[in-house]
């Protein structure tokens, strides 16, 4: 058994911490900065793909903007990503800009623990490469953890089409507020991805933190469709307009109409419009944040509730 004081020196922090947060949360704010300008993009940026790691936002912030995450209560800068403009997507009357993440740094751990922890994490990722679970380079994974400084809510996505039904967890999702889109970044190998491009509608159930184990178990449905809605271990309730089976215990259910989809690296990036939005309950929603963010909050005496 490792002594508590020794643990941080030999074991990396987890890359992700599952935590319970009551939505909507503004605990961490995101600011996009570019020559002489800045914009609050807390609810207007999202991950568009993991490999390459790309960020999407409604703002065109020139060639080399930065994306900064800070604690809204204390103003403390938690981390920064350096972006390079890559492309834009025109959909309906709006435009979305895509940026490559070129560099990044966080300030959740002091030096030298920051570098040592990154080294331990990277070493462990490279070991897992052999088992085929590493789908991005360690440097990009470090940048992705910085993007998770703003805790990302977890939803279950329901797909219902003739001859195909499915429900699986996602957290690479989010509003692009200024343009009114809601985006999803889904690995193109997901078994429902071609069906979603065809039927162009899904329902998102915002998941209570208490259902973490059930949510994680459903990740197998990224690879195989659901045989039968009755096979699920929880009650369902039809979504308002489309009648898609959603989780009856969800905090909130949104129906999305997919208006644009394109492949970006290993992911399919969906731009959607919200067709309906219903609050079914209040309470803690399952979120993911970076392990070093939770470690920082522990040191400040204000950890997120762990689940
Ligand atoms: C809580 C949770 C959220 C996930 N969010 C996404 C997502 O947003 N996009 C995606 O393509 N896959 C998502 N996945 C799927 C995983 O990345 C992975 O593909 C899946 O769990 C299968 O794992 P494996 O390929 O390592 O076997 C999520 C999985 C979990 C458990």
From TrEMBL:
- The name under which this protein is listed is Flavin reductase like domain-containing protein
Q: Which organism was this protein described from?
A: Dyella choica
Leader sequence residues: none
The terms under GO molecular function for this entry are: FMN binding; oxidoreductase activity, acting on the CH-NH group of donors, NAD or NADP as acceptor
Which InterPro entries does this entry report, sorted A to Z?
A: Flavin_Rdtase-like_dom, Split_barrel_FMN-bd
Q: Which Pfam families match?
A: Flavin_Reduct
Its domain of life reads Bacteria
Domain Flavin reductase like: from-to ranges: 151-276
């Amino acid at each position: 058994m490792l002594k508590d004081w020794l643990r941080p020196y030999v074991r990396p922090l987890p890359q992700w911490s599952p935590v319970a947060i009551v939505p909507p949360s503004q605990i961490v704010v995101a600011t996009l900065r570019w020559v002489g300008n800045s914009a609050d993009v807390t609810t207007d940026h999202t991950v568009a793909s993991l490999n390459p790691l790309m960020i999407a936002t409604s703002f065109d912030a020139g060639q080399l903007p930065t994306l900064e995450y800070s604690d809204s209560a204390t103003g403390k800068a938690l981390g920064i990503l350096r972006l390079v403009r890559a492309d834009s997507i025109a959909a309906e009357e709006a435009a979305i800009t895509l940026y490559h993440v070129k560099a990044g740094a966080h300030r959740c751990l002091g030096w030298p623990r920051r570098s040592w922890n990154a080294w331990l994490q990277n070493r462990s990722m490279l070991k897992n490469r052999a088992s085929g679970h590493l789908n991005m380079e360690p440097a990009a994974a470090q940048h992705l953890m910085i993007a998770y400084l703003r805790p990302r809510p977890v939803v279950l996505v329901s797909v219902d089409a003739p001859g195909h039904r499915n429900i699986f967890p996602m957290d690479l999702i989010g509003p692009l507020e200024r343009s009114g889109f809601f985006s999803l970044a889904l690995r193109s190998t997901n078994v429902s991805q071609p069906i979603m491009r065809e039927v162009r509608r899904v329902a998102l159930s915002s998941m209570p933190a208490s259902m973490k184990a059930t949510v994680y178990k459903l990740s197998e449905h990224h690879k195989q469709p659901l045989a039968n809605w009755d096979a699920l271990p929880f009650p369902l309730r039809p979504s308002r307009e489309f009648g898609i089976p959603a989780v009856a215990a969800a905090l909130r259910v949104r129906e999305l109409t997919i208006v644009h989809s394109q492949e970006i690296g290993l992911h399919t990036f969906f731009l959607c419009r919200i067709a309906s939005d219903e609050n079914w309950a209040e309470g803690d929603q399952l979120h993911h944040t970076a392990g070093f963010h939770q470690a920082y909050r522990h040191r400040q005496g204000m950890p997120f509730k762990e689940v």
